[in-house]
Backbone:
């Protein structure tokens, strides 16, 4: 009997998959024997990411495909989905990971910064989910994982656009879970806390005190690593989670448990 966490024969599409959380999740899924498609707007790290994944997929006889795609462009999302289906014939898992943060006090935030964050963080996951839905329905199963944030449930005075977008991602997750449950498609969210990524490195540069403030608040007494997200992503991609849908899975070292 195969492990309920085995992803042999499954194909995962991960947006923002060239670095950080996206790449760490792609590695985790590949280690569970899934073939992976990493899509990213910036091709700069594509070769390194593909090489890192190829080293993993070789052990499980799975494959990796790297694509360049702007998830805010509906036509590009359609082309990305078509390319994945042409290569593998199916898409079993979608990880909506691509994200952006453009911080400013709300009274000073340019409208274009508000709109860009909403477009990337909230509208793009919806468009990507729409794009993969026909294939998942045809297959009779599918898993969609939306990368939200602990800020889905918390306010952010200097990042109202980011918090609003991630709150929207959580509600989108619940709504898609309800709508697509009859199609045997499970839709769940992962809520990362403070993870050491390029995005948070820039935040620490802007606010040098942030590093120590987070260490003082997190019971685990450290920042998270992108690899900390891989385990829950494998669970939500596998048949082990077939009766889990519309749920939010917090990975924050106890940050939100502190109240």
Residues:
């Amino acid at each position: 009997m195969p492990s309920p966490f085995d992803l042999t024969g499954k194909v995962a599409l991960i947006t923002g998959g060239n670095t950080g959380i996206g790449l760490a999740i792609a590695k985790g899924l590949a280690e569970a024997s899934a073939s992976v498609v990493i899509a990213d707007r910036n091709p700069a790290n594509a070769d390194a990411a593909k090489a890192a994944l190829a080293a993993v997929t070789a052990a499980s006889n799975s494959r990796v495909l790297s694509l360049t795609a702007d998830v805010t462009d509906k036509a590009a999302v359609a082309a990305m989905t078509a390319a994945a289906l042409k290569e593998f014939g199916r898409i079993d898992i979608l990880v909506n990971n691509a994200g952006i943060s453009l911080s400013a006090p709300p009274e000073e935030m340019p409208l274009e910064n508000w709109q860009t964050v909403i477009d990337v963080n909230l509208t793009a996951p919806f468009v990507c989910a729409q794009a993969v839905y026909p294939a998942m329905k045809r297959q009779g199963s599918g898993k969609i994982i939306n990368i939200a944030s602990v800020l889905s449930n918390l306010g952010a005075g200097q990042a109202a656009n980011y918090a609003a977008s991630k709150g929207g991602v959580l509600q989108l997750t619940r709504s898609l879970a309800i709508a697509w449950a009859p199609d045997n498609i499970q839709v769940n969210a992962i809520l990362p806390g403070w993870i050491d990524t390029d995005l948070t490195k820039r935040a620490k540069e802007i606010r040098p005190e942030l590093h120590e403030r987070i260490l003082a608040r997190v019971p685990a007494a450290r920042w998270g690593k992108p690899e900390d997200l891989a385990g829950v992503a494998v669970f939500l991609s596998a048949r082990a989670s077939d009766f889990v849908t519309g749920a939010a899975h917090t990975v924050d070292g106890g940050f939100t448990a502190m109240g």
